[in-house]
Amino acid sequence: MTPKAENQARFGVAPDAMVFARGVRKSYGPLEVLKGIDATVPAGSVACIIGPSGSGKSTFLRCINHLEQLSGGILLVDGEFVGYDLRDGKLYEVKNSLLCKRRADIGMVFQSFNLFSHMTVMENLIEAPLRVRGMPVGEARAKAEILLARVGLSDKAARYPRELSGGQQQRVAIARALAMNPKVLLFDEPTSALDPELVGEVLQVMRDLAASGMTMVVVTHEIGFAREVGDQLIFMDQGVIVERGVPREMIANPQSPRTREFLSRVL
Amino acid sequence: MSLAEPDNMIERPSDPIDDLVVVPRRHYGIWIGMVVALLFAFVIIRALATNPAFAWDVAAGYLFHPSIMRGLAKTLLLTVVIMAAAIVVGTIIAIMRVSPSLVLQSFASAYVWFFRGVPALIQLIFWFNLSLLFRTFSLSLPWIGPVFSVNTNDFMTPFVSAVVALSLCEAGYLAEIIRAGIKSVPSGQSEAASGLGLSYGQILRRIILPQAMRFIVPPTGNEAISLLKMTSLVTFIAVDDLFYTAQSIYARTFETIPLLIVVAFWYLFVVTVMSIGQHFLERYYGRSDKLDESPFARLIRLAFAPRRVGVLP
């Protein structure tokens, strides 16, 4: 049995679950930020996470690609642990090279873009494919050009990040994540640092991605996007999931008073 | 005249605004300062030109003297070797200081504390006298016996002592510069890189250090310049550098001042060349900034930069 099948049988993971979280906890010292998160994101679906700041939604996202280490619970991506190997009922931390390899399959887009500021757009896009995947330069460049065309920035390949607008930078960041052919893309408030008139172009790229069947977990304040694109909506508050459901229904008719209060403030 | 024309466009024969004259503020302090400065310059230049004790002709005669040239070469060699070693050691110490391990951090802090705290001259003489502490260096393995053994005095030549002492000392300063540079790179950069699957070493080499260089190069250039001058300390342990060579000549001929002029000239010359080099390094590492070039920088670049056909500034 493959590790994936073994994990799926052992923890009752649905075969199509791309992200599977059970009882995920995270503490910083005495401060408990996540208090037992259960969630499943099926392959090809879009999960949107909303909630007030400090609710733990970004921390949960960062746990998925092991930028944060879990304090408890399990988190599987495509049926496998990201930072651990399960052997004889124990979780062994994997060595760095294996962690890097698994992280490479999980794309992440940050609120503050985090493009490598000393590299051109093209260099940003080919860096990881060259260094992590060992892809030949020609192939990496060709792929990067296709991706840049997809986010509508073909003419910016030779530019440095600071010469681009925030919306353009975020589209480059999305292309950079796509260059690794990730199984799942994590978005950490991708439009929160943008001027209002630039939000639309980034959301459009994300909409296209969702339509192409990419599995996405999106922490966002864009309720409209969640309603239109999301397959499930998760509302988090104070480290727990308060409510989840089909976005359209949940936004129209929230069950929990906390969800209702939050939605009334952001809508 | 149309009605749409604004009121102030109407020409009046004598507008009181046209007669106003701006009288610039008088900067009396600056004028006095200029006069004093010019006076000082005049006195100094006259002294330099008329005092025969400067013996400019003697100085000129020694400028390209073979011994002086050999001394200059030794000084340059020392600077390059020490700086290279100090960059390697300093980078390692800096990485230890930003590492998550408390032991490595403390070791690096102690290193910086000691080698920055003890005067370079004392460190130099200490390493030169290492044989007083350890007569021999030997390696013995259990069951095999001694593998090798050397007399400390055989390998701790003045030159080696100078390189070891000054590079360890310089590394203390560079470690702090490099650490500050690493700290100046926003943490989002390494997060994004690790999210893409780059390893710790790759992140350091490809993402952090190249961006830190913009903050590291300017102070490191200053360090290199002060190191060049610091190498004159090796005179104390009889390394035949530029200053030592000059000293040994004027100890014989008593032409003290002309030879000091020669030494000063060569230090100034090398420092000037290094400053120009530093300027280009800074430009290279700041290339993603696209800062506008200052007129002085442009002058220097046009005067010294290698020209490539078809590449416009």
Automatic annotation (TrEMBL), chain A:
Domain of life: Bacteria
Keyword Transport: yes
Membrane topology field: Peripheral membrane protein
Chief location bin: membrane
Localization per record: Cell membrane
Every ABC transporter domain range: 19-263
Keywords of the record: Amino-acid transport, ATP-binding, Cell membrane, Membrane, Nucleotide-binding, Transport
Keyword Chloroplast applies: no
Molecular function per GO: ATP binding
Family: Belongs to the ABC transporter superfamily.
Name of the protein this chain belongs to: Polar amino acid transport system ATP-binding protein
Organism: Kaistia dalseonensis
Automatic annotation (TrEMBL), chain B:
Start and end residues of each ABC transmembrane type-1 domain: 72-275
SUPFAM superfamilies: MetI-like (SSF161098)
Pfam families linked to this entry: BPD_transp_1
Keywords for this protein: Amino-acid transport, Cell membrane, Membrane, Transmembrane, Transmembrane helix, Transport
Primary localisation category: membrane
Ranges that cross the membrane: 28-49, 76-98, 110-134, 257-281
The family this protein is said to belong to: Belongs to the binding-protein-dependent transport system permease family. HisMQ subfamily.
Protein name: Polar amino acid transport system permease protein
Organism encoding this protein: Kaistia dalseonensis
